[in-house]
Amino acid sequence: MDWEDLRYFLAVAKARTATGAARELKASPSTVIKRVSDLERSLGQLLFDRSREGYALTAFGQAILQRALPLEAAAHDIARFAEGAPTAPSGLVRVSTTESLASGWLAPRLAAFHRQHPAIQIEIFAGAEVVSLGRREADVALRLARPEGGDLRARRVGEVAFAGYRLRGADIDPGAWIAFHEQPARTAIARLAETRLGGRAPVLRAGDFSTHQAAARSGLACAVLPCFLGDPDPLLERVEPGDPQLSLGLWLVVHRDLRSAPRVQAVLDFLADQAQVSRRLLAGR
After folding, report:
1. What pLDDT score does 186 carry?
2. Domain boundary among 39, 69, 84
3. Which tens digit of pLDDT belongs to each residue from 45-76?
4. At which of 63, 84, 105 does a domain end?
5. Residue 128: is its pLDDT beyond 80?
6. Closest to 230 (Cα-Cα) out of 212, 243, 208, 255
7. Is there a single domain that holds both residue 206 and residue 250?
8. What residues make up the domain containing 49?
9. Which of 91, 99, 129, 101 is nearest to 251 (CA)?
């Protein structure tokens, strides 16, 4: 038996004519007649007595009607439930951020996100190079500077602090520092490291904070690190006590056309919440 035939049977039983049922079902009368005949053949008995006045239920048809009505009610209930049920967001969301934020802050929090949204896949683009949200190279970005222009929507969700760190308890030359490569020397973070050199050559140049941190842990020299990396590290201590020497805004950025997509909104909400929860860690306090 085809379950769809029952829908045609119910429509004819209520309308009493094939034409009336066809209007209700938005189908042709010939289709209605065929579907009812198919159902009768599959059940092996007549459901209607046909006459010029229309379709009258047989005793067997009446018995089938009583059993089919609860099925119809259940189908309507399922449809109403589906319309009102929240749709779980799903799909791929690409997040662009710095290497240090990706490995030191974002990645350790993704297990909690996956428990909340198991149908969303995260793809992280980490590095110093800023990818373009406008060209859809990423969907969401965590940046340390507010973007200018374009159809981007930016929200400041916190601040990220930076300070100098050295191997805990070690007698490190106060003028021995790790610096960045020449290329990013114009950035505020790189300038902070350069000022600590006092005109001296750096002990090491490297382009990523993970290398700076590893070198500082070895006792090679002092390094400027994000406080969310340096403060929890049991092998490191701040070179200078007190407030961090530099703080940059943490900006959550999305393209205007994507901000209402459920999967993207779920990621934005999660990142904003996590930034609030860890605001003291990020701010070096």
Report:
1. 55
2. 84
3. 999 999 988 999 999 999 999 999 998 888 87
4. 84
5. no
6. 212
7. yes
8. 3-84
9. 101
